[in-house]
Design goal:
The protein folds into six domains: 104 residues, P-loop containing nucleotide triphosphate hydrolases (Rossmann fold, 3-Layer(aba) Sandwich), CATH 3.40.50.300; 108 residues, no CATH class; 173 residues, 3-Layer(aba) Sandwich (Rossmann fold); 122 residues, Topoisomerase I, domain 2 (Orthogonal Bundle), CATH 1.10.460.10; 110 residues, Sandwich (EV matrix protein fold); 123 residues, Topoisomerase I, domain 4 (Orthogonal Bundle). 44% of the residues lie in helices and 19% in strands. The chain has 28 helices and 30 strands. The chain has a six-stranded mixed β-sheet, with helices on both faces. The longest helix has 29 residues. The protein is globular, with a radius of gyration of 33 Å.
């Protein structure tokens, strides 16, 4: 009321709007009022109850939207307690932080189970200090527990000091009761959102101006808005051309007014087009559908269609659920017709058994294995054609690799007769910004990638069928298979295992009295010899000499590629390659990381912005060192990185609070992998660390052992996010032995899945999209198994298959032959080779294999 009165005194027709009044709204719409003044709160009728795109132009905030939350028992409300816990959580550590998180989860759950009248009764009973019964009493008791926890926190000097030092929080007292001042991001979003609305010409331009009256609240608002929006840019008013923006706002309002009055229906030069966007997975479709508010949803046959507006397009978003077509098995030469030196692959729609999950492409009515009904992708294609006939443009948004390009090509070929225009859009992260950028920059289907995928699939079919038939006949087992890539990889596993068995040694781990740990490795000994040496070592005096300390700069590692991620997740998280790729796929589809099948370490400008924001806020701008890690690469592919400056701890908290709602539920394994990706990427953008490197020689029972490691961090850099494992700093002299352990170990160890992927990358066999599949095939066929340490060992079956293949078909499955074929396929992708010529060469090779006949 006071602000409205002030504006009226300056000649502005203003009125307070603290309660919804139709008369006031009508006067504003009619132009009798210039300004409505209300409370900047998510509960305000002015912020959430008005939708007047022709009239509302600007939102001016006379102060930062904020809440003053009291800790008086009479003021307790579950939603306020959640806000307090979320804001205080960053000031807590260890068990208290976990307790605050648990309270948030339980508060949300209990609140959702109470009706409005029940919640009111519980809160009133809490204020009056009386008990209830049943579930209501459990709720009241829990609310009281939360209140006591919060009250205790704000009474502690260390917490009060942390609040004073915080750049985001403020605390004050009123009538002896403390209250916390926190930003109200929802109130800001709702109020500013009144200025920019959807209309027939797109989304209207709006202007939001905020007067900063509280620096801490403003810092908190900026930080909180990041949890709701991908990109928010605040600019000082004196750095923008307000006149030009206001003129643009006015132009949109005049256009909306004329459209509503029916004065210019035909004057729109480029109205919004309707478009069908096809992606691969339902999760990705749901993620995209949430970028622009709550989507409408309809079912067309087996297809779920999400409908949204981007401002330029009315989008219908659907999922193809992977490939639609695959090679048939009954026609031609393993599904490929050969005519006068040309090759015509024959594709059929994919059919999947509803019971056993087996997949077929031939014309079948029932599953040959279990007799159950089949789901045929032909039904999905028919539904896609129906939706395509309703729109102006088909947008193919499948994954940005050869597999995705082939899926997109199939869909485009199937739907192009039913739609006027077909475009390919490519995005390497599922974010609103990336989608809008892709919509602005469509391209055509890259037929080189399609040809490379077809070549790879045909080669896999030809060599796989031919070798598998011979392995099955030789081993008399129909479940076995063989392939050109998996065979040399199986051989690596066997060779490493054999080398491991030959290099076993007796190891003695010594912890010295000064804290240094050393390992003495000796050739295999008898049991008596081991016991005798253990006795001597326990009494031994060790000489430390030749100690050197050198101050060095340590650079961070690059961000993850697919092979590096598989290797690190295998060693640090004990995850198999198949599990890592499945989790990474889901993280990508919900928009948390960039595309996970990549051999590039390049970081885009968007990635640099993510790192800059997180590092600057967490440790200060001096720790940020932008690196593109491009290695001379060109193109759109980049490393595996997070899409937002939100670490795993914050992500877990925001999901528990319901601020971040993803298209699928994430479990602990998802968060562990996300944490690994996030920390590796952030480290790659931080300054080098200055550390002390220690070298020393330890003489133990006449054996000289070289010890080397980092013993001190002088100037932290990336080590703040990826701490080093430091060794004990030592000086020269004699020292006793504190503890001795004995075990048997080899200098060489059997391969882990991650190490096997690294070998594939180094030796040019396999691709980011096939690394995990190759290993999972070896495990599923029983050719290798994992021991309790997660290392791969060949089975007797695997060795038998390997001996047979190399004895009879060595030239077809050798590492060199496989690598040459990989290079040829890469040449097709890059336009340096004709895929028909390579197919001819392959055909001659496979025919010569066929002529060998069964073993």
């Amino acid at each position: 009321d006071e602000l409205a009165a002030f504006l009226r005194s300056k000649g502005v027709r203003a009125e307070a709007f603290t309660r919804a009044r139709r008369k006031t709204v009508d006067a504003y719409v009619a132009g009798e009022l210039d300004v409505l003044v209300g409370v900047a709160s998510f509960r305000s009728p002015l912020a959430r109850g008005i939708d007047l795109p022709a009239r509302i132009r600007y939102a001016v905030f006379a102060g930062v939207p904020k809440m003053r939350i009291s800790l008086a028992l009479s003021e307790f409300r579950p939603h306020r307690a959640i806000i307090l816990l979320a804001n205080l959580r960053d000031l807590l550590a260890g068990g208290e932080a976990d307790r605050a998180d648990a309270y948030v989860v339980r508060l949300r759950r209990i609140s959702s189970l109470l009706r409005r009248d029940e919640l009111k009764e519980v809160v009133q009973a809490l204020a009056e200090g009386r008990s209830l019964s049943g579930f209501l009493e459990k709720a009241r008791s829990f609310f009281e527990e939360v209140w006591s926890f919060l009250k205790g926190l704000l009474a502690r000097p260390d917490v009060r000091e942390a609040i004073r030092a915080s750049p985001h929080l403020s605390m004050d007292e009123e009538a002896g009761e403390p209250y916390l001042i926190v930003p109200d991001p929802v109130g800001y979003l709702q109020a500013s959102g009144r200025t920019s609305r959807l209309y027939a010409g797109g989304i209207s331009k709006g202007l939001s101006i905020l007067v900063v009256d509280d620096e801490k609240a403003f810092n908190g608002l900026k930080r909180s808005l990041r949890w709701y929006l991908e990109e928010v840019e605040w600019r000082p008013a004196d750095e923008v051309d307000l006149g030009a923006i206001m003129a643009e706002v006015d132009r949109d309002r005049e256009l909306i007014r004329k459209l509503m009055a029916g004065e210019m229906a035909l004057e729109l030069e480029d109205p919004m087009k309707t478009a069908l966007l096809v992606v691969e997975s339902p999760t990705k479709a749901r993620t995209i559908a949430r970028f622009f508010g709550r989507p409408t949803r309809r079912e067309v046959g087996p297809l779920t269609v999400f409908e949204i507006s981007t401002g330029d397009f009315f989008l219908s978003v659907v999922a193809s659920k992977g490939h639609v077509f695959d090679l048939v098995t009954r026609g031609g030469f393993h599904g490929v017709e050969v005519q006068d030196g040309s090759f015509l692959p024959i594709y059929g729609t994919i059919k999947r058994c509803r019971r056993c999950g087996e997949q077929y492409t031939d014309d079948l009515d029932k599953c040959p294995i279990c007799g159950s009904e089949l789901d045929d992708k032909a039904e999905l294609l028919e539904a896609l054609r129906k939706v395509a006939s309703e729109v102006d443009v088909l947008l193919v948004g499948t994954d940005a690799d050869a597999e995705g390009e082939k899926i997109g090509w199939d869909i485009a070929a199937s739907l192009s007769p039913f739609v006027g225009e077909v475009k390919r859009i490519e995005f390497h992260e599922i974010t609103r910004r990336a989608l809008l950028e892709a919509l602005r920059n469509p391209r055509g289907i890259d037929e080189r990638l399609v040809e490379a995928q077809m070549l790879r699939r045909i080669e896999d079919r030809w060599i796989g069928f031919e070798l598998s038939q011979r392995v099955q006949a030789y081993m008399r087992r129909k479940s076995l298979s063989a392939g050109r890539v998996q065979t040399p990889v199986l051989r690596w596993v066997a060779e490493r295992y054999d080398a491991w068995r030959k290099s076993l040694k007796d190891c003695f781990g010594l912890e010295l009295e000064n804290g240094l740990r050393v390992v003495l490795r000796l050739p295999r000994m008898t049991g008596r010899e081991v016991e005798a040496l253990l006795g001597k070592l326990r009494e031994a005096r060790c000489l430390i000499r030749s100690v050197e300390h050198e101050v060095v700069e340590l650079a961070p590692p690059p961000p993850f590629t697919t092979d590096a991620l598989l290797r690190e997740a295998s060693s640090s998280l004990r995850m198999g390659a198949k599990q890592v790729m499945a989790l990474a796929q889901e993280l990508f589809e919900v928009g948390l990381i960039t595309y996970h099948r990549t051999d590039s370490t390049r970081v885009s400008s968007a990635g640099l912005a993510v790192a800059r924001e997180y590092i600057s806020e967490r440790w200060g701008p001096d720790y940020f060192r932008p690196r593109t890690w491009s290695r001379g690469e060109e193109g759109a592919h980049e490393c595996i990185r997070p899409t937002r400056p939100i670490d795993a701890r914050r992500l877990r908290q925001l999901m528990r609070m319901g601020i971040i709602r993803l298209a699928r539920r994430l479990g602990p394994e998802h968060l562990a992998l996300y944490d690994l990706i996030f920390k590796r990427f952030v480290a790659s953008q931080m300054r080098k660390a200055v550390v002390v490197k220690q070298k020393a020689v330890v003489v133990v029972e006449g054996q000289e052992l070289s010890c080397e490691g980092y013993c001190e961090v002088r100037e932290p850099g990336f080590t703040l996010v990826r701490p080093l494992r430091l060794v004990q700093k030592v000086s020269e002299g004699e020292v006793g032995v504190k503890e001795v352990r004995h075990w048997i170990e080899a200098d060489i160890k059997p391969l882990t899945e991650g190490e096997l992927v690294a070998m594939m990358r180094e030796r040019g066999i396999g691709r980011p999209s096939t690394y995990a599949k190759i290993i999972s095939t070896l495990l599923e066929r029983g050719y290798v198994r994992k021991d309790r340490w997660g290392r791969l060992r060949p089975t007797q079956l695997g060795r038998a298959v390997l001996r047979f293949l190399y004895r009879r078909f060595g030239q077809y499955v050798s590492e060199e032959t496989t690598r040459r074929l990989e290079d040829a396929m890469r040449a097709v992708e890059e336009g340096r080779a004709d895929y028909m010529e390579i197919l001819r060469s392959l055909y001659r090779e496979i025919r010569s294999l066929s002529s060998k006949g069964p073993d």
